[in-house]
Amino acid sequence: AQTVTQSQPEMSVQEAETVTLSCTYDTSESDYYLFWYKQPPSRQMILVIRQEAYKQQNATENRFSVNFQKAAKSFSLKISDSQLGDAAMYFCAYRSWAGTSGSRLTFGEGTQLTVNP
Amino acid sequence: DTEVTQTPKHLVMGMTNKKSLKCEQHMGHRAMYWYKQKAKKPPELMFVYSYEKLSINESVPSRFSPECPNSSLLNLHLHALQPEDSALYLCASSPLGGDNLQPQHFGDGTRLSIL
User: Fold this and answer.
1) A33–B101 C-beta distance less than 8 A
2) CA distance A65 to chain B (A)
């Protein structure tokens, strides 16, 4: 079974600064997908960024980027120019082949990010 | 705007009540999910429907009964719940086949409190 570990239960960052959230995972699969979701107090899980394991190029979405190290099984999220609206719980998630049975997501325990003005 | 709509947003019920949670999506997704989430914890998968058929049941107690009447609608029927069932219940949907990078889209959840 796959496991996802987020070693930082809480992180804080000053507005406009950069912060990196860590995520490691354990799997024996070679083909899989990785995601970062954020969950603000409004409760909705919002996709931040996604990465295919077979792609060596790190994914980027505006101020959000990942450092994907497949051999090390590491998938960290970097948030640049942090904004107050980035404050949320961030979950790293792993998904193996979707097929026809629906795609099971394995979540890490989450990192609560606080953005200080 | 949320593309996955869940109703009600809040629900308070007694342990002997019967109630239902509803989830609707119109994105043409053929996989739909129910998750349970406790405070400050990640979502826990409960059920997965693929092409309107139950494909995954994560050993959920029978007091939770899912139903998928059509490709857009997912219900969760609740009966004789326990206080420990109080949680946020999230619905999600995703495409099946094709681009496997397609993520799950989540609703805002139903906050359930059992008295």
Assistant:
1) yes
2) 17
